[in-house]
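User: Predict the structure for this protein chain, please.
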Amino acid sequence: MVGRDGRLRDLLGSRLPIVQAPMAAAGGVELAVAAIRAGAVGSLPCAMLAPEQVLAQAAEVRSRAEGPLNLNFFCHRSSAPPDLEAWLALLRPFYDSYGIGPGEGAGPLRRPFDPAMAEAVDEVRPEMVSFHFGLPDDRLLARVKGTGAKVASSATTVAEARWLAARGVDMVIAQGWEAGGHAGRFLSPPEEHLGLVALVPQVADATGLPVISAGGIADGRGLAAALLLGASAGQIGTAYLACPESLASPAHRAALASPRAERTVFTNLFTGGLARGLPTPPMDVLGPVREEAPPFPHATAGLVALAQAAQARGEEGFRPMWAGQGAPLARVLPADELTALIASEALALTGASA
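Assistant: Here is the predicted structure, written as structure tokens:
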């Protein structure tokens, strides 16, 4: 199936109009391999990896599957660690309940794209490189394009899509309000974030570029709707979390299979940036959004020790469970089977060529 708009196939060589979403901490080699083997674009989340890890994971994917690979990076601006006093004070009751000190422990922060990562891209030479939170500076972007990779980035509004198009992206990922994980906004305030039905056709009309629709797509109905709205492909994330190849935790999987999946909310408690996920105990106690949370990605530093202490007791809650509004539609299937099924369902609804 090539879809109603064959530009994704022409740009990347994918047989299906599906991009497997990167999903840091839940996506990885196994999921990317399965998606590529099924005919989709497979993605590796790289924002929490070191360059040598990117090289190793990409090499493993290449050795096991032949098809288009997407490397995904974040483009937030680096900043000095902020004052965490108010944040740690807010978390103090949780620290006390586990008998640990504030701020104990450390973990990887999400890294902005930098020259070392550009070197990794040059070595891997993926078919696609996608960015979140805008684009890297012109020099780094030119290095990526010089590898032959097609460049995409997320837009939550038409203004962001126009900004990306003016800077030479090959595709725009229209990330609707429904999408799980971090909202990729970089120009527009949260209240301007559009839902997918409004966002996709406006981005397609405003830019004339191939659009990858992201947010709430979990079955063939969602993919068919995205294609009919003018998208060249759908980016699917949450639906893959239930697959055996995903790295989602047992607690995350159980929550997705429960009535909790019907309610997802935006929260800034886990990283400092707004991201959609399933409710967890800290969100129930503190509320999903707090002004005390330091800016992205520094809130994570206050939660590492709590997550480790909770896990030692067999508890969850201090690690995010990202999920989009399509979470109740997820099906427990191997990722290659799920990819093929969603594509065939969309084909039946749209009459696109197989």
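The two ends are 4 Å apart (CA to CA).
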